[in-house]
């Protein structure tokens, strides 16, 4: 990547600072909108009133300077710090608000400060800010939602590494943000899949859009071999186009399973790690997969994989191993009998219950 240029610290008048209308943290449906629309979104979604109150009571901390680039004659676009800029604009011009007017008026009545000269770090190129943000927001301590990270990384690829295939670009981007290549690659491929879902209008699933879509479901699914194969995505090997062979019908099914709610407001799948691991087993077994696609519950389909016996024995052996480890330590700890008597009784009761259940099932099988 090109060498980063120098930066200058300046205090810039608020009237010369403009919001980034294409901020990757904004929903795609809002990108390119007016400042008025973005301010309204911020007020409803980003705890902006609380930030206004904090700045209004304490002033603007110079260490939290905005990161900006020149954008016209004597004006600047704020690339990092749009939430703080929104708060500053509303503190000085509360009439800009179309919502939360009562709360904003209450803030105005309580505050002492309305900063107008804002500390800024002026960069020569927006690309230099993006490289910094790539570390801070994706690897660092100031976390973004995963879809925001994905959109940011994808745009960074297209803006700075467009001439390189995704696999090579992932390596370069990983270096620039201090992350791992496989993680960046999975996010980039996942975002291409997300764009296909978005392009299909989220399959007309009620309530599903870019603000309610959980991108981590894609990222986690691509880590499961059978799910990735079901979707038609081979992320393990180097390819020119990782989504060229995607199974559109299966992608639609996957999206409905995870996001379409029934009359009880529940989806067929919960997108947590345990459910996706179970789905991965089910999709790896033809009988179980067919049953699930025909409407069987995930647990019922999982029983058809034949892997529950193995899981059961692993749990039993794991519990035994842990008890053996405790037995090795028992003569060297100061724990009293009263400290463990309840747990030991529960272990005995649970072990007896498991044994009775197996015996009862075997007795029933004999008839």
Quick gist of this model?
The chain is 56% helix and 7% strand.
Mean pLDDT: 88
The biggest sheet amounts to:
5 strands, mixed
User: Which spans have pLDDT < 50 for at least 5 consecutive residues?
Assistant: none
The overall number of domains is: 3
Rg is 27 Å
Helicity range: 55-70%
Please characterize this protein's 3D structure.
It is a single chain. The chain is built from 16 helices and 5 strands. Strands 1-5-3-4-2 form a 5-stranded mixed sheet. It is globular and about 85 Å long. α2 packs parallel to α4. It starts with 6 loop residues before the first strand and ends with a helix. The protein folds into 3 domains: 118 residues, Conserved hypothetical protein from pyrococcus furiosus pfu- 392566-001, ParB domain (Alpha-Beta Complex), CATH 3.90.1530; 126 residues, no CATH class; 59 residues. 56% of the residues lie in helices and 7% in strands. The protein is an alpha/beta fold and 367 residues long.
Which tags fit this structure?
367 residues; alpha/beta; Conserved hypothetical protein from pyrococcus furiosus pfu- 392566-001, ParB domain; five-stranded mixed sheet; 16 helices; 5 strands; 56% helix; 7% strand
């Amino acid at each position: 990547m090109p060498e980063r240029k120098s930066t200058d610290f300046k205090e810039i008048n608020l009237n010369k600072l403009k919001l980034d209308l294409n901020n990757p943290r904004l929903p795609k449906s809002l990108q390119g909108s007016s400042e008025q629309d973005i301010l309204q979104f911020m007020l409803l979604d980003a705890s902006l009133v609380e930030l206004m109150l904090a700045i209004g009571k304490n002033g603007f901390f110079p260490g939290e300077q905005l990161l900006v680039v020149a954008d016209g004659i004597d004006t600047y676009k704020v690339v990092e710090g749009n939430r703080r800029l929104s708060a500053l604009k509303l503190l000085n011009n509360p009439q800009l608000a179309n919502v939360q007017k009562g709360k904003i008026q209450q803030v105005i009545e309580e505050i002492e400060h309305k900063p107008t000269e804002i500390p800024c770090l002026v960069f020569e190129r927006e690309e230099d800010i993006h490289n910094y943000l790539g570390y801070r927001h994706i690897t660092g301590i100031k976390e973004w939602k995963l879809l925001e990270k994905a959109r940011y990384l994808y745009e960074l690829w297209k803006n700075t590494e467009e001439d390189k295939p995704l696999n090579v670009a992932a390596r370069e981007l990983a270096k620039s943000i201090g992350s791992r290549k496989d993680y960046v690659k999975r996010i980039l491929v996942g975002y291409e899949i997300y764009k296909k879902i978005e392009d299909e209008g989220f399959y007309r699933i009620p309530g599903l859009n870019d603000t309610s879509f959980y991108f981590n479901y894609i990222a986690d699914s691509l880590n499961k071999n059978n799910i990735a194969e079901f979707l038609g995505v081979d992320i393990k090997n180097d390819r020119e186009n990782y989504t060229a062979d995607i199974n559109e019908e299966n992608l639609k099914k996957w999206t409905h399973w995870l996001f379409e709610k029934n009359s009880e407001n529940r989806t067929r799948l919960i997108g947590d790690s345990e459910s996706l691991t179970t789905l991965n087993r089910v999709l790896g077994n033809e009988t179980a997969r067919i049953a699930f696609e025909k409407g069987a519950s995930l647990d019922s389909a999982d029983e058809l994989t034949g892997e529950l016996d193995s899981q059961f024995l692993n749990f039993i052996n794991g519990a035994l191993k842990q008890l053996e480890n405790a037995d090795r330590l028992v003569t060297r700890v100061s724990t009293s009998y009263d400290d463990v008597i309840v747990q030991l009784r529960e272990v005995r009761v649970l072990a007896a219950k498991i044994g009775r259940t197996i015996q009862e099932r075997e007795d029933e099988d004999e008839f």
